[in-house]
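Recall from the previous chapter that SMILES is a line notation for molecules. Here it describes zinc ion.
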Amino acid sequence: MHCPFCRNPDSRVVDSRTSDDGLQIRRRRQCTVCGRRFSTSESASLQVVKRSGVMEPFSREKVIEGVRKACQGRPVTDADLAQVAQVAEETIRATGASQIQANEVGLAVLPPLRQLDEVAYLRFASVYQGFESLEDFEAAIADLRSDKELR
Ligand SMILES: [Zn+2]
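With both inputs in hand, we obtain:
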């Protein structure tokens, strides 16, 4: 991508963000020669492979719906949900993969959800990490507790 002002072929990325529909990545770039800034936009297709083997385009809305269920009755706002979904999407896109398994989407949701609400995190983790017994819950809770003690 040449600088539109001086045609220098080299620029550095100063900011990247994904559009709300998850289909475009906008980057702010700064020319390394003249220092002027410009934007580029690229579309990145990301396919999710469902357990049935069917592929569908990644949808941030679907992530939000899944997280919303785990957040029922919790003090979590729509903005919080959007934030969790954005962090998860950025984590996935940072891997550079164009195709991911549905459960990897769930795993990418866990860290930001853990920051947001521990009860919702446990509910969500129990599904995506396949908790099978009380011991699994106890281990996850012990993990949350030990994190708190470190803070
Ligand atoms: Zn330039």
